[in-house]
């Protein structure tokens, strides 16, 4: 995780707590594959796809929260050079707009229910 620490001004970011959630999502995706192999009803498959998408959307804000916390901590401790702080601010702004546009893109539900 040295790469992670380098990008966060020496502050460790522990994303490993997301692994159990990601493993559950992986299981959901394998279940989707099985549903398709079994010829399950399309709407049932679509509902499960929506569940996977929702689960992934819950992972992202937790990871970004941890990232932001580490960046702020490194910045406050003076461990982050000015250029890196500016770069971090730009990436935060871009991520914020990406999250807002993803919420508005209509991808919340593939099928109107």
UniProtKB/TrEMBL annotation:
It comes from the Bacteria. This is Metal-sensitive transcriptional regulator. InterPro entries: Metal_Tscrpt_repr, Metal_Tscrpt_repr_sf. It comes from Roseicella aerolata. Pfam families: Trns_repr_metal. Belongs to the FrmR/RcnR family. Residues 94-113 are annotated as: Disordered. PANTHER family: TRANSCRIPTIONAL REPRESSOR FRMR-RELATED (PTHR33677). GO terms for biological process: negative regulation of DNA-templated transcription. Gene3D superfamilies: Metal-sensitive repressor, helix protomer. GO terms for molecular function: DNA binding; metal ion binding.
């Amino acid at each position: 995780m040295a790469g992670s620490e380098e990008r966060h001004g020496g502050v460790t970011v522990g994303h490993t707590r997301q692994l159990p959630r990601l493993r559950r999502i992986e299981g959901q995706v394998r279940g989707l594959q099985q549903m398709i192999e079994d010829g399950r009803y399309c709407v049932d498959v679509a509902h499960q796809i929506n569940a996977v998408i929702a689960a992934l959307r819950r992972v992202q804000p937790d990871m970004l929260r941890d990232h932001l916390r580490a960046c702020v901590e490194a910045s406050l401790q003076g461990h982050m050079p000015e250029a890196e702080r500016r770069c971090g601010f730009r990436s935060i702004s871009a991520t914020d707009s990406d999250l807002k546009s993803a919420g508005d893109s209509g991808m919340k539900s593939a099928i109107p229910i």
